Amino acid sequence: GAVVSQHPSWVICKSGTSVKIECRSLDFQATTMFWYRQFPKQSLMLMATSNEGSKATYEQGVEKDKFLINHASLTLSTLTVTSAHPEDSSFYICRARDSRIPNSPLHFGNGTRLTVT
Amino acid sequence: SQQGEEDPQALSIQEGENATMNCSYKTSINNLQWYRQNSGRGLVHLILIRSNEREKHSGRLRVTLDTSKKSSSLLITASRAADTASYFCATDAGGNEKLTFGTGTRLTIIP
Predict the structure, then answer these.
(1) B95 touches chain A (CB under 8 A)
(2) Of the candidates A45, A105, A110, which has its C-beta nearest B41's C-beta?
(3) How far is residue B33 CA from its own chain's centroid?
(4) Angle at Cα A29 formed by Cα A23 and Cα A30, nearest 5°?
(5) Nearest chain B Cα to A93, which residue?
(6) What does each of the 111 residues of chain B score in pLDDT, given as a tens digit?
């Protein structure tokens, strides 16, 4: 079945550095991918919708200059947390589905745990 | 916030018992989905129920939907230790594939 690969699975970085998270659809094409953030013991909050070949759509309250999204191909979307700070420490998860199949289910990546020290 | 509420927030039961989790939401929906998340991992889709459906089964899972009360329940029968996880409901209101997640229920099955 459809698989979404997310990398890295965990990362520790120093405050002020930038971190890039990749989300790949391994055996299907995804014109749209969704990025979520989950704080410990909390629910998932949608951050942005990533659209292949165009600008991402950000949810209210999410800084687009802070969380840069690039969806340059049908199988890869990246989320870059720029100038990360400890409050950005969270679990980031992407989600995608096969664009060619109507009503196909969406699949989540396994998530990336970001810790900013 | 459009986020739904789930109750209980945490549930511990003995293996073999049934587990019931409830979800309430605020807006009209196209469908409601239930997901499972093991600690520190991604989400696994369990079941989807459409707004015109009232009940759906999948293996040991039974989901009900009451659109008049804006609520849903997930029943896991004959629980197993491997069912220990967090369970989230998620609603799709606009058909645009954006999901709004509930607060989740942490289920612990005691062997």
Answers:
(1) no
(2) A110
(3) 7
(4) 60
(5) B42
(6) 446 788 899 999 999 999 999 999 998 998 999 999 998 788 898 999 999 999 999 999 999 999 999 999 999 999 999 999 999 999 987 666 778 899 899 999 999
